[in-house]
Structure formats: structure tokens, C-alpha cells
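Example record

The entry below shows one chain as it appears in the dataset: sequence first, then C-alpha cells.
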Amino acid sequence: MQQAPQTILAAALFTLHRALVHCRNITGSPKTDRRQEVYEIMEAIHEVPDFLANWQLHDLKELRLHLSCFDSTKWVGSPNLVKIFDVKLQESESAIAK
């Protein structure tokens, strides 16, 4: 079993954190029913932990493909998972290069 490189691991875990916090926040609101949004986020991220743990079977393109399955433009205030991942990945890579 080969884990994802540290920069990818850090960016993906940060992205998962943001997605899960978003889901927690919207499910805590009794005023709206956004089950479909939560479902679509979970559909996009449910394989990510396996990708990170078994990186030899996956790659960056596949990870981004899964994250992009959630269309953040459908709901106001939803996180753009690919953008969050890419920004954090760039930050992580820049920190290592210093």
C-alpha cells in the first residue's frame, strides 16, 4: 500500500474537511432541505480516502475527476472542491520548494 505524496495528501484532506464542514452546516439548518446537495458532495468525495491510501492505483487526474463531479454552481455558497484542492496543493508545493 502506497500513500499519496505529502502535498497531495495535505490538499485532499483539507478539501475533505471543507466539504464535510459544509455538509454539517447545511444539515444543521432546519429551514431548508438540501439532501440532494449533501448526496452529490458525498458522491464526489466518498472514494478519496481510498485513493489517498492506495495511491499506486490512482493518480491526480482521477482524484480531480471525482472532485469535479460535485457541481458547486448548482447551490449558492457551495464549495468548489477542485478549486479548493488545487489552491491547497499549490500552497503545499510552494512551501516545500522554499
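Notes for this example: The CA atoms of residues 41 and 70 lie 6 Å apart. The first helix runs from residue 6 to 27.
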